Input
Amino acid sequence: MLSALLRKFLNILLCSGSDDPKLEEAFKSGNQIRDLPDYEIAFTDVNAELASLGIEYMRKPHFVNDYTYNYTDEDGWNKIVPYLTFPADWYINDRAKCNTYAMLAVCKALFVYGLNVFETWGMTPMGYHAFCMVRLSDGRFKLFESNAGFEYAGELFEIGEHEYFPDGWE
Output
């Protein structure tokens, strides 16, 4: 996990100079949550797990790195996923779209909690769409929407629930 000092520094760095109180609140809310169980898995292992589910890594074929992915249990994710959800009115056509919301969740999860969220792509009722996926301590994967404009935003749901079918991640 990231040290408290590093978290504090990153919180200041991410929010300093912002004249948008909603932006500052989005990055500062939930930061008091600490002591989540922390697990890790090697990139090659998580890549194999996801490939077995038909969810392929979207970067260069045969790309291998030495990263580890850090994750928590379902209770831990349930505590922080609401804080990885951002106001719907930030959506800007041709600038900030669904993948931007997913990337915000990826960044906040890493910099604030020291955990990895997967930016995930797949078919949904609205077409091909970016959303988020997390690994649970029991080896399962769950999804969430990081755009608060969705009815089920900020809560974990099963693959296939709400007709979300991921096929790629990064």
